[in-house]
Write a structure and sequence with these properties.
Rossmann fold; 2 domains; 13 helices; six-stranded mixed beta sheet
Length: 391
């Protein structure tokens, strides 16, 4: 064998190995309903095949798939959507094909509705995490969205595990900023933890378009519908039952100075909901009380009541909500292993508690207490601040 033949043979082996390493994917003929013309079905089928842009899959020809299905007694693509146990077993007899893309296109008024699913040929089961539903005005708009949609459907498993944050349920009289600020802060903190999320603006837009922008403790099937529309695995929704910023007057009897201090209270819970079943997978309660005197006066000198409220949100989410979400079984795979430096020694919590500075007393503060504070060995040079009258 000369050198050129050797190189050619080696190249063939490498190419063959690449082909057989990739999973084989077949695109079944789309099922048309509601008066969709056969020409549109044919055009859509071609669009699907040409839009498969993935190194993970090798595309099987139409003729090969048709022959395989005929051999096991399946004559139409509509048979693939609802297989009985016998048909599922026979589908597993197809050699070489790992996945089948099944789709349905129908008319809904003046618009087109397209549903796409990935069928695991080895089991005959539809992969619920790999489904998509598109509503468009015509075939051209559908063609524009197909490639990006298929990329999501054919992505690896990790990229499929996305969640969506729903608008919170607020059961108390609250300022207008509460819902948006809570969700934006929750989104940022979850992204920082490496969790995959559907964009908040996209969630609101999609749900509003489908008249589902007010999901408020609805039936599980409606959460499932929302999950399919958003193409997510889990839904996150907060319920807020208390949100108060209290302004409390105080005075120093010895000096006659008086002023106000602010106390913030927020209570509620965050539910983690399965987008496949609509059932609650976990609930993270939160109950936070913040005395804003811990913030330097120089920082909050010009704060309004709304500023105090927004700070309360920024406090409760990273300290209470996010740790609870990360401990939930639904997100347990996202928790990074603890390093040796993070592992606590026995009794460490007690020592840490002992080292904490004393809690500032509430109510009327006397001069003697302030002097004691000033002479404390823990704080030899204290900066004692007295708030002036705010209003």
């Amino acid at each position: 064998m000369n050198f050129k033949k050797l190189i050619t043979a080696f190249a063939c082996v490498v190419l063959s190995a690449g082909i057989f390493a990739a999973d084989k994917l077949a695109v079944a003929e789309p099922v048309g309903k509601g008066g969709v013309p056969a020409s549109d079905i044919e055009a859509f089928w071609s669009i699907l095949e040409s839009s498969i842009q993935s190194d993970e899959y090798t595309l099987i020809s139409r003729g090969a798939l048709k022959q395989m299905l005929t051999e096991i007694g399946l004559t139409t693509s509509s048979d693939l959507v609802s297989l009985n146990s016998t048909q599922k077993a026979r589908l597993g007899e197809i050699e070489g094909v790992k996945y089948i893309l099944v789709s349905e296109i129908s008319k809904f008024g003046s618009r087109l509705n397209c549903t796409m699913r990935i069928l695991d040929a080895t089991t005959g089961e539809i992969d619920q995490a790999r489904t998509a539903n598109l509503r468009v005005k015509d075939l051209d708009e559908l063609a524009d969205q197909i490639e990006a949609t298929l990329q999501k459907m054919l992505a690896d498993d990790k990229s499929l595990h996305r969640s969506a944050i729903l608008a919170p349920v607020i059961k108390v009289s609250a300022p207008s900023y509460l819902a948006d600020d809570f969700n934006v802060r929750l989104e940022n903190e979850m992204l920082d933890k490496g969790l995959r999320l559907q964009n908040l603006q996209s969630v609101a837009k999609i749900l509003k378009k489908n008249d589902m922008d007010n999901l408020n403790e609805l039936e599980p099937k409606l959460y499932v519908k929302a999950g399919k529309l958003l193409e997510v695995e889990m839904l996150i929704q907060a319920t807020i039952t208390r949100f108060e910023i209290d302004k409390i007057a105080y005075n120093v009897a010895e000096t006659g100075n008086s002023g106000f201090r602010y106390i913030g209270n927020i209570e509620g819970s965050v539910r983690i909901i399965s987008a496949q079943t609509g059932e609650t997978l976990g609930s993270v309660p939160f109950d936070e009380r913040v005395d804003f005197r811990s913030i330097p006066i120089s920082t909050r000198r010009d704060w309004t009541v709304d500023d105090y409220g927004k700070h309360l949100i920024r406090t409760v989410i990273p300290q209470k909500v996010i740790p609870g979400i990360m401990k939930s079984p639904a997100f347990k795979d996202m928790n990074p292993p603890k390093t040796e430096t993070e592992e606590k020694k026995p009794g460490a919590d007690k020592h840490a508690e002992a080292d904490k500075p004393p809690v500032k007393p509430s109510g009327i503060i006397g001069v003697e207490e302030l002097l004691k504070k000033a002479g404390s060995p823990r704080d030899p040079n204290p900066a004692i601040e007295l708030e002036s009258v705010i209003e």
